[in-house]
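Margin note from the TA: students keep mixing up input and output lines. Inputs are the sequences; the output is the structure of the whole complex. Example:
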Amino acid sequence: MFNALGSFITSGSGTNLLLAMVALPAVLAAIILLIPKRNSGSRSLIFILACIIDLLCAIGLYIGEDMSMIIPWAGLEINLAMLLYPFSKLMLLAAASFAFLVGLYSISFMRGKQTGGQFFFYYLLSLALANGAFLANNMVVMLFFWEGLLITLFGMVIAGNKEKTAAAVKALVVNGIVDLLLMMGIAITCIQTGTMMMDVISNVPLEGIGTVGFICMFLGAAGKAAAIPFHSWLPDASKQTPTPFLAIMPAVLCKLLGVYLLVKMSVNFFDIRPGSSMSTMMMIIGALTVVLAIGMTLVQKDFKRILAYHTIGQTGYIVLAIGTATPVGIIGGMFYMLNCSAGNCCLFLTAGAVEKEAGITDLRKAGGLGRYMPITAICFLIAALSICCIPPFGGFFSQELVFTAAMQGGTVYLVAAFLGLFLTLISFLKLGRSIFFENSRLADETEKDSVKECPGAMLLPMLILAGSCVFLGVANSSPLSVIQPLLGGKAAGLNYAGWPSSHILVIITAGVLLLAIISHYIGCRKTGEAFKAADHITHLPVLRQLYNIAKKHYLDPYNIITVIFKVLAFICHCLERCLNWLLDTLIAGVISSAAAALHNFNTGSSRKYVFWTMVGLALLLLLVLILM
Amino acid sequence: MHYPEIILFCILVPLIGSFILPFLGKINAGLRNIAALIFVLTSFVTAGFALQQALNGSPLHIELAMPLGLSFGFLADGLAVLMALISSLAAAIIIFYSFGYMEHYDNQNEYYMLVTLLTGAGMGMFFSTSLLILYCFWEIAAICGWRLIGLHRENDIAVKADKAFLINIGGSLLMLLGFIGIYIQNGTFNMLEMQDKGLDNWIMILILFGILSKSATVPLHSWLPDDSSAPAPVTALLNGAILVNTGVYVFARMFLVNFHLDAVWNLVIPIIAAISALVAAGAAMTENDIKRILSYSAVSQIGFIFLGLSCGNAVGAAGGLLYILTNCLALGGLFLCAGIIEHKCHTQDISQLGGLAQKLPITCIAFAMCAFSVMGIPPFGGFFARYLVIDGAFTAANPWIAAVFIIGSVMTVIYLSRAFIKVFFGQLTHPDIREGSWEMVSSVCLLGALSLLAGIFTNIPSQLTTFIIDNLGRW
């Protein structure tokens, strides 16, 4: 059936279909916005239809032939060029699958909410833009779609809470900076290579201005996936943004986009070699992101904020792996991306289910919800185990590849990766037990009785995502057989399917996980409550001070940037005032004084007039004599 | 169809028509308003006819031969038509908006006359082939700007209007000296006889004073933020639609089409533009008056346009021209939205505004669309313009200047998002207001929609800008 769909889609009007992948969700998004609020059923229907059509098209394109199209657009080589090839097919399919599942979930989640229409609009628009970015074969066109996501991000955060807007501005400014960096990178790279066509740019040497181009582009790609130092908007936005949007945007689309570009940069665009300075830079940023972001989860008390920090931490693993510039790193990074997208998306959906049914996301107020929401709890458990690198789930197999790459990069990166794993398990033990498995902390019996399992339309996507975590692990050869060929000759003869080849790394992994369980047990014994189970770590002498500084946002790069820009604005303001003073006061004063002085000569005395006339004539004569 | 007289229609209909408007106003205000709109739309439609001819490679041209190099005429080449189309379209939308906005203001006859006259003067400037005629229209525009800023007769406003006038006149007199210098050097005022010639630096400096003063570039910018006390359509007209664009146009006409600049100017002008963009953006970040924020934004964006036009390559120049269009639509829209807010809330102070998205939802959407375009966020038109300008700076091997403009772009995002959030979100400050009149709301919606279309269908304006650049034959 799927083969028939593929051949139907790619026959004849294939290039139109590439455009339709962008235009269709965008147009349907606009239609949803025009439908009155009272017709929420029609809005939901169009929304889910758009998701289904997008998924069917993506499946069709995945099965069908490669194709390309080019339409003149903005002139000066900026053509609407699109290319469908295995990598873009995989990304389109992944985005469409996640979008469909989260979309299905969203219909129930958003029912009765005022911002439903806006949510569906931004959701579909994000999907359209992401599709455009995956298909674009022109650098500037890719940037066009990529940067367009700023609007949906800003809109969704602000729609979440119209009174508390700081998070929306933060999201816009941070992502705006990231996109401007990417723009610089693209401009420099295109000038250096003399082309904007992505399939032509190849092996750009990393020297001189080319290095600047690479760094800018890397920061743009990693920043989109919320790597440090461009991460801090996400935890803040997570508080007020609808949970399904978190599940699709930062957890899936932004991550897919960031990884897509990082892999393109490593495999195609630039000549990055293992051990080179650029590879080291990427690995350092990746390792720092892993340790710092996951470290921050230990002091968080909010379900969604914890997941937001984990999303950032997982980006760190991906950047670290791809940064090694080795085949195992790139393949591992991509496989890990699929796993953590599935896992994290599922976790966000469970958070949404808890938020909707129990009305809480605060760890200190929840507890024992597993009894009332058993299927949600099981989905949470499977996704969390996958993220925590426990077999037989997909996370284990992909993370072992990441560890292998980190080991090739250097011991320090391997230590960082394992430290991240240690912190991840501690964090999820704290989170899972506090929300689902500890004794209930709900205020009274009425509150407890009102909590029930979420509707089937919300459960189904969670179950499918949890199932995919199992599938990606048990049948890891299937996704790897799709990913490995994307590297072309670089991965020739390699096979990473099956049980990890490095038994030492598996043993170390088991040891680290055991340590994390012991740490959690000690923490629980000390404090008596799961949500405080990491306090014995965060209260360690130096860490305590560091966490205090972090909690006060002193280390938040956004705050630092804001201060810098405020100082710059103040200097500019002073300069501008000075210029105004010069014009309004000084020059105007000089002219007024001159006028007043000249006024004094108007005495009415003809003798004085004759005298000044003579002086004037004498000066004129002198001037003529000098000129002659 | 080759009727060069069409250019005369484009210029003379608003120019002469403007003097009829006060008399029509005495008979019927509605008739006057419609007539003003028709006069300006005539310019737009005739410029559209001229566009066809320009793209066909046979631009409309009228020339009157005179002795002593004083011959003058009008030429509708690509650049002139582009500017005429942009300015007349924006002016028409602003006039339509004024039907609702100016309803309760005094001196409406004067207002409509001056706006139409300013449009006519702009058209004259764009099509003129003679520096002297261009100067005459330039001064007419300055006088219109002076009276429009001082439309309300209060003393403090009159002082601001005088300041704007003096800066403009001071600059234009220096520019006139520059024109005389060109005449001495070339023996003619006719620009068609000056193609691909060099220019002495002292002449360049004199002309630059005129251009910088008219286009409100730092350090001659301060008259523009001061005009924020004028009615919103006036600020839109001066900041976005016509007056400021005339300075940019003369720069493009003189130094893209006619004269070759010394290489040093390809560095000096981007530096001036960068300082202007940064200083104005910084000032916008510290302001609380929404119209002053937008005025500083106009100064800052003009810096981007100058960067594009002066970086000495096709990419930058195309970006600069595209920037003029997108900036005119988006910034004009922002000023008109600010007008609705001021009209309804009777304050321009953003610290006293909040939550207006609940009461002015359409204005909020239009403001957001225009602001996104000014920020250069896709799918709005500003994206391509900004990219090309910055790409032009990198192509010209000026990475530091490009980096300054990137900082300027970040500042644009900060101050516009701050203004947007403060005005439309947070605690509702004015619970008893409702949307502006349909003329006002539809005008801002149109400008917002055009900003969006300029991004999605960027091929349409880009074809024209690329055509202009290709015809220059420089790169």
